[in-house]
């Protein structure tokens, strides 16, 4: 029976497990693979063993179960996205089956980050409104700015660079403005990017780990 | 490890590094690939400068610059895929997610903070307080000179800030987080504790006025030179390029696990500033990071300067345990 693990790998009481089961697919990856005919527990775990010898990884093994935990795993660790998990070899209908249950804080983080950026968008909207109100109050005190348009150097005129325009009052996106003023757009864009990254990552990492285990188990 | 003597220093006694351009591998592959990865950098730089120099005012806008910046980064991610400098720096989903999180913070939270206490905001307040105008002495200069001055002023201040971070413990604490990265990729420049990211963005540019177009051209310097600091692409950078500009080779040495090597190549875009002050070392490294290449989690990256600072303060000023008398 699969246990219910939190992102930190703690086992939850039964009542919480039932509820969590509906949402824990967000950061839990489960799957199973048939072992090759005649392959023993011992042989299967021996083939998977190098994956759990990476730096920052600790693991324990009984006859049919391997549990592991990772901390500060290396970027190129092939299981870097997972922080803990259990691999169990069970008797299936057609032979031995490897069932795995892996927990990833990175997936949970990526799932939640869009909310952070949406909150950031709301904060930015409030700040921009506040700043705009302040700027308009200052503007009403000022007389119209009648500065002439800046002139190009003779070298640039000769080389054909377009002449600069007279600066627009309060222009947010005028020529050469460095775009450093707060705006809600980047926050919304990053919320969308992370939502897409999560969907891509959840599918990709599921496939990658399955393929990694399969290669290890069937490889020479 | 014996290390290599460079001036008065011995580089590479703690971790493997390569010193000297003649020892750095070249791009491998057919003539087309070698041609592309030799001339890509200069071509893109001159193309971007020409674009911003001649673009009509209706196009020469900050929003266009942001669009070009994003497209260029995507292109560079493609180059990382095609021609990585080291297989051990391959971008993974987790690395990309981590990097983009920091890029996102830079565009949102950091920008919000900058609008209040960033160097431009502070300069504006100082100018307002003393009823001064921005210094316009550079506005009559040719556009390319103005653009260079904007980039150089920023780089010069950043050089000293960065060098200060490597020499003064309170500044090292926030910067150290950035040195825990164990591989270089296009967006790794954004990874770091937010305090450091704020500090490294400080400059004196807010006191000077330049033609708006000069800002866009200077942005091209940053994009088409500075971006290569953190990139996993093998280029045959031309000799003049690597003499003037910071490269991924220089910056990988700065990120190496060798302490002496990290105390070199501080500039952002213009490596000649390091040459001026004797801190430039030409070379590269593959093994990066601190504590033997321990990868730090985002949570620790956010808290590390404070927890480490607290530990240090406690050790220095906290109550010392009373030594038990020997029985």
Describe the structure.
The complex is a heterodimer of chains A (220) and B (327). Chain A has 220 residues and is α+β, with helices and mostly antiparallel strands. Chain A has helices at residues 14-20, 41-48, 105-141, 154-159, 185-218, and strands at residues 28-34, 57-61, 65-70, 84-91, 96-103. In chain A, a hairpin with a 4-residue loop joins strand 4 (84-91) and strand 5 (96-103). In chain A, helix 3 runs antiparallel to helix 5 (185-218). With 327 residues, chain B is mainly alpha-helical. Chain B has one domain (4-23, 32-311). The N and C termini of chain B lie far apart (45 Å). At the A-B interface, helix 3, helix 4 and helix 5 of A face helix 2, helix 3, helix 4 and helix 9 of B.
Write the SSE topology:
The complex is a heterodimer of chains A (220) and B (327).
Chain A lengths: L13 H7 L7 E7 L6 H8 L8 E5 L3 E6 L13 E8 L4 E8 L1 H37 L12 H6 L25 H34 L2
Antiparallel strand pairs in A: 1-5, 2-3, 3-4, 4-5
Chain B lengths: L3 E3 L2 E3 L6 E2 L11 H24 L7 H21 L10 H15 L1 H9 L1 H11 L13 H23 L3 H8 L17 H7 L11 H13 L14 H6 L3 H7 L4 H4 L9 H6 L5 E2 L13 H20 L10
Antiparallel strand pairs in B: 1-2, 3-4
Helix pairs in contact in B: 1-9, 3-4, 4-5, 6-9, 7-14
Main sheet: strands, sense, barrel of chain B: 2 strands, antiparallel
Terminal-residue CA separation of chain A: 31 Å
Q: Which two chains form the greatest contact, residue counts included?
A: A-B, 53 and 52 residues
Broad structural category of chain A: alpha+beta
Beta-strand content estimate of chain A: 15-25%
Order of helices and strands of chain A: HEHEEEEHHH
Proportion of residues in helical segments of chain A: 40-55%
Instruction: Report the radius of gyration of chain A as a whole number of Å.
Output: 28 Å
Mean pLDDT of chain A: 86
Number of domains of chain B: 1
Helix segment count of chain B? 14
């Amino acid at each position: 029976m699969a246990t219910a693990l939190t992102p930190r790998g703690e086992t939850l009481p039964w009542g919480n497990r039932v509820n969590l089961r509906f949402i824990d697919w967000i950061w839990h990856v489960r799957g199973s693979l048939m072992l090759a005919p005649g392959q023993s527990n011992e042989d299967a775990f021996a083939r998977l063993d190098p994956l759990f010898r990476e730096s920052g990884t600790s693991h324990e093994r009984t006859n049919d179960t391997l549990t592991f935990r990772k901390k500060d795993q290396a970027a190129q660790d092939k299981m870097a996205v997972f922080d803990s998990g259990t691999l169990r070899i069970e008797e299936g209908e057609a032979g031995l089956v490897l069932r795995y249950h892996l927990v990833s804080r990175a997936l949970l983080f990526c799932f939640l980050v869009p909310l952070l950026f949406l909150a950031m968008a709301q904060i930015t909207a409030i700040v921009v409104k506040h700043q705009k109100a302040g700027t308009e109050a200052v503007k009403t005190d000022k007389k119209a700015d009648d500065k002439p348009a800046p002139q190009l150097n003779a070298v640039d005129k000769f080389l054909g660079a377009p002449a600069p325009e007279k600066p627009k009052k309060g222009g947010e996106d005028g020529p050469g403005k460095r775009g450093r003023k707060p705006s809600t757009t980047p926050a919304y864009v990053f919320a969308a990017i992370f939502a897409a990254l999560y969907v891509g990552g959840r599918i990709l990492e599921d496939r990658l780990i399955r393929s990694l285990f399969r290669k290890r188990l069937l490889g020479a | 490890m014996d290390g290599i003597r460079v001036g008065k220093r011995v580089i590479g006694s703690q971790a493997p590094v390569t010193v000297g351009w003649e020892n750095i591998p070249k791009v491998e592959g057919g003539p087309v690939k070698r041609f592309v990865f030799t001339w890509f950098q200069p071509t893109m730089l001159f193309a971007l400068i020409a674009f911003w120099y001649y673009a009509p005012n209706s196009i020469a806008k900050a929003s266009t610059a942001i669009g070009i910046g994003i497209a260029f980064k995507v292109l560079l991610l493609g180059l990382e895929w095609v021609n990585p400098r080291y297989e051990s720096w391959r971008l993974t989903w987790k690395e990309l997610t981590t990097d983009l999180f920091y890029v996102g913070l830079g565009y949102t939270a950091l920008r919000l903070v900058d609008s209040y206490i960033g160097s431009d905001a502070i300069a504006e307040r100082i100018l307002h307080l003393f009823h001064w105008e921005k210094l316009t002495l550079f506005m009559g200069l040719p556009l390319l000179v103005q653009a260079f001055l904007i980039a150089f002023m920023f780089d010069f201040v950043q050089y000293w800030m960065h060098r200060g971070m490597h020499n003064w413990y309170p500044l090292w604490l926030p910067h150290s987080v950035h040195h825990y990265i164990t591989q270089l990729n296009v967006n790794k420049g954004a990874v770091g504790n937010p305090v450091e990211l704020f500090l490294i963005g400080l400059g004196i540019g807010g006191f000077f006025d330049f033609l708006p177009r000069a800002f866009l051209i200077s942005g091209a310097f940053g994009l088409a030179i500075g971006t290569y600091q953190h990139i996993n692409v093998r280029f045959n950078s031309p000799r003049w390029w690597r003499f003037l500009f910071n490269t991924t080779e220089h910056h990988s040495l700065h990120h190496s696990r060798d302490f002496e090597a990290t105390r070199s190549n501080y500039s952002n875009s213009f490596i000649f500033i390091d040459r001026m002050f004797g801190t430039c070392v030409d070379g590269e490294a593959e093994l990066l990071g601190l504590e033997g290449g321990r990868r730090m989690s985002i949570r620790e990256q956010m808290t590390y300067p404070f927890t480490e600072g607290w530990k240090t303060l406690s050790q220095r000023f906290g109550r010392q345990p009373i030594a038990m008398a020997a029985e």
